[in-house]
Amino acid sequence: MKRKVAEQEERQGMKVQALARENEVLKVQLKKYVGAVQMLKREGQTAEVPNLWSVDGEVTVAEQKPGEIAEELASSYERKLIEVAEMHGELIEFNERLHRALVAKEALVSQMRQELIDLRGPVPGDLSQTSEDQSLSDFEISNRALINVWIPSVFLRGKAANAFHVYQVYIRIKDDEWNIYRRYTEFRSLHHKLQNKYPQVRAYNFPPKKAIGNKDAKFVEERRKQLQNYLRSVMNKVIQMVPEFAASPKKETLIQLMPFFVDWISLFGNGRDSSREEFSSS
Predict the structure, then answer these.
(1) Is 113 within the bounds of a domain?
(2) Which of 10, 11, 28, 88 is deepest in the core (most CB within 10 A)?
């Protein structure tokens, strides 16, 4: 999609440049016609006039003619002058329409790019716009696509005062993909461990704890987005600082580095046991 849009923008840009050059030519011709008309009116007779219009043929006056013919020639120049002015106005209007169309397309592409990032996470080319870290290395950019993280949903578990939210985390590494389910406290524990192990992680914002109103739907949705952005940023940094993961980008390697991503359902093979194990430490 980006390549197609870039090609379209390049083609439109070439058209704009061609029209701009044609516009400049028309301006020069317009000045010549104005000068010719003024000269004919001032002298009241014809004189040798250089070739000024070469679209439909050459207009050349080689010798002096009677005053009536001079007026007719001046009238012809005036008509052509009007035609050039109309063409110039149409060109300006077309340029304005083209500019508005390009601006609308750029806005649409930007919106679609952001929606795509929200759906599948950043890949090479997106990092400069999505990551909070402005000092991303070439290594990080070239390897970011090895892992993608989403938090597609969040749901409420428990009853009444003991109710809590659980976030679905979907991870994909090449052909490996799996889901885990974690509470906010587990994300917070992961953040503290990563800070201690990788001081660079402290540069990333982690959504703060909230005691009142933490079950409000709008707040939960905002926290879901914040946790998703946090995990994606942390994955960028982990890839940069852990060469063994880049050498072997797979599920087992990630779990060894960060047990947070253990898939308890696959580990125990039973949804009920996995759920109990999953939340036992929360």
Answers:
(1) yes
(2) 88
Closest CA to 229 of 133, 125, 94, 156: 133
* CB proximity list for 118: less than 8 A, separation 6 or greater: none
Least confident window among 44-58, 176-190, 191-205, 239-253: 44-58
- Work out how many domains the chain is built from and give that number: 2
Contact indicator for 52, 35 with CB cutoff of 8 Å: no
Is the same domain home to 195 and 249? yes
Encode pLDDT of 103-114 as tens digits: 888 888 888 877
Return the higher-pLDDT residue of 12 and 186: 186
CA 246 to chain CA mean position, Å: 27
**115 and 132 fall within a common domain:** yes
The predicted-structure confidence for 75-90, as pLDDT tens digits, reads as follows 787 888 888 888 888 8
Task: Report d(CA 222, CA 55) in Å as an integer.
Answer: 64
Q: Do 126 and 199 have their domain in common?
A: no
Beta strands in 135-253 (DSSP E): 148-157, 164-173, 176-183
User: Domain holding 264: CATH number?
Assistant: 3.30.1520.10
Among 187, 218, 219, 217, CA closest to 205? 187
Backbone torsion region of residue 51, taken as left when φ is above 0, otherwise alpha when ψ lies between -120 and 50, otherwise beta: beta
Instruction: Dig out the tokens for 94 from the structure.
Output: 């077309």
pLDDT at residue number 126: 45
Supply 247's token pair: 């050498």
What pLDDT is recorded for position 269? 53
pTM above 0.90, yes or no: no
Does 157 share its domain with 198?
Answer: yes
Q: Count the neighbouring beta carbons within 10 Å of the beta carbon of residue 267.
A: 12
Structure tokens at 83: 């035609």
210 and 260 assigned to the same domain: yes
Cα–Cα distance measured from residue 191 to residue 185, given in angstroms and rounded to the nearest whole number: 10
| Structural domain harbouring 112 | 86-145
